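Re-run with default settings, no changes from the original entry. Doing this only to confirm the output is reproducible before filing.
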Amino acid sequence: MNYEIKTQGKFRYIEEGEGEPVILLHGLFGALSNFSGLLDYFKQYNKVVIPMLPLFDLNILETSVAGLAKYVHKFLETREYKDVHLMGNSLGGHVALVYILKHPENVKSLILTGSSGLFENGMGETYPKRGDYEYIRRKTELTFYDPAMATKELVDEVFEITSNRLKVIKIITLAKSAIRHNLGDELKTIQTPTLLIWGNNDTVTPPMVGEEFHRLIPNSELHFIDKCGHAPMMEVPGEFNVIMHDFLKRLNNKAVGANAG
């Protein structure tokens, strides 16, 4: 994915296209490449923005879901993005939820896929095992329905992170923060139109997690994708994009109709 990484102050991000901003938040082992299919498609219709979340750069006290949500708030303020469509995968979804609970006025719609915030299967008690490449490869494969999605490049990225002692400490800190920061009944206060896209074969945040989000968030709709794991926007970008684009179009049609009335 050869997009220019822009810098403003401490913020690093990709911004492509014009129109209403779609902000994409990656997960714990996420990289910009997770969103290449989404970015290539939606930059035709929207301003697509991917901030690089400082998973390993916050001080240890700020290394939490709330700390990342604060970072996203400062980023959106600095860039003066308004009425954003906020999309998050895995930990990125959790960060989006914590953000919207504090700043609902800034968000036009919320899109969650494989989000933490209610329940997630961790990487196991022994995780991460430093220096065990096979173990990391198997764990990375579990993210997907199709293990071939765990390319050598992707496994190498995760392996590099888990081979660094300081990064491992930060990962464990963030993972524990996500488990502790269970949102539960708070979700009932979210009034923003919300789209939930879940892989039917997600083993990290299983389908029942998507159903629980749907039950708790009042103005939400839930879509399942077959033969798909924890990162639908990577594994089945075509199907994911169609569902998300249809949701955004219906939202805009409703807004146009309301203004006309």
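The domain at 6-122+178-260 is CATH 3.40.50.1820 (Rossmann fold). The CA atoms of residues 142 and 203 lie 7 Å apart.
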